[in-house]
User: Fold these one by one.
Assistant:
Number 1:
Amino acid sequence: MYALSDHELIKLYSNAKTLNLENHFILLIEQEIKLRGLQPPNEQKVSLKQDSFNS
């Protein structure tokens, strides 16, 4: 998987989850993402301002 860029790897992970591929395959991709020091998209922290809900 070293031939894939970080962006391609994240996209592959998202597509694998969307297509509901085998868990073993998804876990392999997830391990590679974590080895690179990245976070899978569903684990990325999102900061929301509270006032954005009050408009």
Number 2:
Amino acid sequence: MYSAFLIQGLAAHLSAKRSALERLDRYRLRLRKAKEDLHHKEDKRRVVADALEKANAENKSLIGENKSLRTDLEVANKRAAKRECQLTAAEEKIKSLGPPNGNANLLRLRKLLPKLWRQRRSPPSKPATLFGWLSMSSGHGALGDDGMAFDFSEWMQDVAGSVVEVAGAYGDFCARSGGKDGVKTRLREHLERIAEAEAAAAADAGEDPKSSAAAAGREGEGNEAQDHPKV
């Protein structure tokens, strides 16, 4: 009788222990699954954080590039405005120095000014100075109100002074916009040499060759009259 109760108690204890172990295994499985889910979520969070950090870095870089491009655009617009003002002032100066009835020649000179700025790119067969362009154009001068062809040599000295002023202003502009830029420095020196050459050419062209030839002819006639006096 005592042994039967002992066996029943032992069986109940074993059954309870088995059920407890089963519940413990289920808890362990749940805990393991929860840990795996937590690790998976942590990995996803890290990936999202890295992507967000990269996006923020790219956004900052794009903002910096945008500011730099905007600054460069503003500087370029200011330089273009200053250059336009200088060219307009040069045209007004040339208009003020031109003759009253030389509108056609002024239009031709306005067309020749861009060729002067691009003079370093022009082929060697073309005239390399403003004096050369004006000399070519002087043979096709427009007629004034009196029917006489306009001669550029009459106001070449004034135009040379204007070219000197334009070259100096453009050189100062290049120096202010970028003193370390070698191309602008060479262009400024080239324009200064052109201005000096134009001034020298204008000074040389101040004497009219026709008057010199006429004076030489009259002198020759006087000498001939002295060699062969009338009897």
Number 3:
Amino acid sequence: MNTSLRLRRRCRLRSAPRTGRPRRAQGTGLPAPRQQGITHAHLTQDEFVFVLEGNPVLRTDAGDTPMVPGMCAGFRAGSGDAHQLLNPTAADVVYLEVGDRSTGDLASYPDDDLVALQVDGRWRFAHKDGAPY
């Protein structure tokens, strides 16, 4: 594993911005070829990604956007704009991901029969009809 992909072990930084909500920043590696999670949107958590290395593709409801190092994207909580990072290249991708992990967030996964609710710091997963997994 190259040095930059050691970030996959997730370097974390916590801070409290003016909103008073806790934020978490983590460096994440996305080996080639791979996708970051599944397409999702958050109800109460804003998210921000900043590309450090590689050329990922950002998939949103608006379509696919190629990204290069130095580019960033933000996702407003409650917007319903589902997103996902893909790495279709032969090179690894490293990016910084920032978001808060406040209790009560709900993540929806429009392409899958899945919803996730954060309760007491833990994610609980269910089908879209509410039946637990």
Number 4:
Amino acid sequence: MGAQIRSATENEEQVALTRNKLVLEQARAVGLLGAAKNTRLSGRVPSELIDAAKKRAHVTSD
């Protein structure tokens, strides 16, 4: 049972990594990444929203 849970978790992580890689490749292909940054966006949002987004995207830093 433990091996199945570990395998499922590893599979989910691999799917997330693949999805993130594809999204970044698509963003680069249409010119959304890699160009000079000339605009700043900021705002206040609940910390829970940021925590959930970071967890979903498998991000550990700000």
